[in-house]
Write a structure and sequence with these properties.
The chain contains 2 helices and 5 strands. Strand 4 and strand 5 form a beta hairpin. The relative contact order is 0.17.
């Protein structure tokens, strides 16, 4: 039987896609490839990297604004430094962070009001195969 092997892409609406793409490139350091971001599936620095697909309850408060129907989670190498960089740039950053066996988490909001999550994986990687 054929099966899904990972996330192929994340697509969402934006009022000004080019400006929002440039914002993500500037503030999160995402690689820009002709208006798109492309991540390699396996990175030398994080060979155990993985992606998660997880539906949430319709009434979840995890995404922030109840009108937001999705939230993107970005894997980062230094959560504290990333959050400080965003604060320094005047970006709206949630004061709360979480630290658990799954890693460290923080949240911020892009210029169009989309709340996104930043995730620093734990030093001892979680293995979905375990």
């Amino acid at each position: 039987m054929a099966r899904v092997t990972g996330i192929g892409g994340i697509f969402f609406r934006a009022t000004d896609p080019k400006a929002l793409q440039a914002w993500y490139v500037e503030h999160l350091g995402l690689p820009d490839f002709d208006g798109y971001v492309i991540f390699k599936n396996k990175e030398e620095t994080q060979p155990e990297a993985y992606s998660i697909f997880a539906p949430f309850k319709k009434d979840t408060e995890y995404f922030g604004d109840e009108r937001q129907s999705f939230m993107i989670n970005f894997r980062v190498d230094d959560l504290d430094a990333m959050l400080q960089s965003l604060r320094d740039a005047g970006v709206e950053v949630d004061a709360k962070t979480e630290d658990s066996e799954f890693g460290k988490f923080g949240w911020a909001v892009d210029p169009e009001g989309n709340r996104f999550e930043l995730w620093e994986p734990p030093t001892i990687p979680f293995s979905p195969d375990a």
